[in-house]
Every structure is written in C-alpha cells, then in structure tokens.
Amino acid sequence: MDRPALYSEDKVPQEEQHYHTYVDPHKEVSRLSDIILGGQDGLVNVLGVILGVAAATGDSRIIMAAGLAATFAESVSMGAVAYTSKVADYEFYQSEREREYRHIENAPHIELAEVRGIYERKGFHGPLLDTIIETIIKNKKIWVESMLLEGHNVMVIDKHRALRSSFVVFIASLIGSFIPLSPFFFLPVKTGIWTALGFSALALYGVGVYKAKSYIGHPAKSGLKMVIIGIVSALVGYGVGLLFKVT
Fold this sequence. Notes:
Elements: H1 14-23, H2 29-56, H3 60-106, H4 108-121, H5 126-138, H6 140-152, H7 161-181, H8 189-214, H9 219-243
C-alpha cells in the first residue's frame, strides 16, 4: 500500500471522509458496555429470582411481587454502582494527574528522562526526538497527559460521563429485567416459565450478536455464549427454589 499524501482536513478526499465517518465509524465503547452491563445483569438476575420463586411456589402473585421487587432494586442498585465506580475512576485519574504535576515540579530531570524513554521506544531518535520532547514539555498540561497515557496507561476521564453512564445502566437494567418478567403478567406460571426462558434466550442472543458486529468476533458464537452464561446463571436460582418447594 502506498503512503497517502498529507492532507489538511478540508482537502481529504470525499470517499475517504464518507468511509471514515459513515461506513466504518468508531464506536462509543462505554455506552455499549453500559447497555450490556445493565441489560444482561438485570435480565439474568430477575430471571433467576422469578424462576426460583416459581419453582418454590405456583402462586403468580408471589412471583410477580418478587420479580418486581428484584427489578426495581436491581436497576437502582446497578445505576448507583455504575455511578460510584465511574466517580472512583475519575478520582483515581485526578489523583495521578496531580501527582504527575508534583513530579514535574519536584523531579523534572526524572520526568524528562521518562518522556524521552517513551518516545525512544517508539523509534524516535536524534534531532526529531529532541524536537518532540521540546514541543511536549513546553505545555505542562500536554506533558502531564502524555506521561499519564503513554507512561502509566491512565486514560483521561470525564467526570460528567459518570451520571450519563449510571442513567444508561439503570434504563438498560430496567428493560432487561422486564423481559423475563413480562410473560407472568399474561400467562399461567408453568407456561410463563418456559416463555420467560425463551424471551430471555432470544434477548441474550441478540445482544451477543450485536456486540460481535459492533466490536469483533463471530456473531453466532458471541450470541450463543451470552445465552449459555445467562441461562445457566438463572437456572441456579431455579435449583435453589426447588430446594424450598412449597407443597
């Protein structure tokens, strides 16, 4: 493949712009992972609860009460956990960022040696390396962010994403929870059990296929893997319910 000519942004060929922006765009990693986290967790946990309660008693009102309680408790809990974990990640990033500023102030020669070593390992040497180092250290913010990312593998984190992430996880968990619960609104308990399993398997398979198409992997294998993990986990709840079956 020939090396492409260097273009300014307004001179990029239209076919490349279309491919880059519409045909094969970059994905929102955190959003999809939040949807999978909330949806799969809500679905599997609530399915396990209602299967366990259904195995223990044939009373549909008890099954509905347990399922709804698990749905809302699980959704709120998952949203809160997503928020606190993202905030913890942000606080860690801030802590390391402030530490890096202190290191630049109090141990600048060590920091210069570190940043030089980073770009030497990337293959830069001589006057070009000196130019890169001089450009980076002119701006402390760029210097700090370069050291965090390149030297310590600490990603820049936006605090405002924590609230958005928790909301996405909450909604995904709520929707996922109602997938196995919905059949019990309309069907007898025994029929509801099999319908809940079917709905859940289809939903899990669809999520696995979508994940593989969005990222990488074989769609059918990814979907089957999601189904096996989810259904086996939920069947543990059914087994526990059988131990306490009410006659």
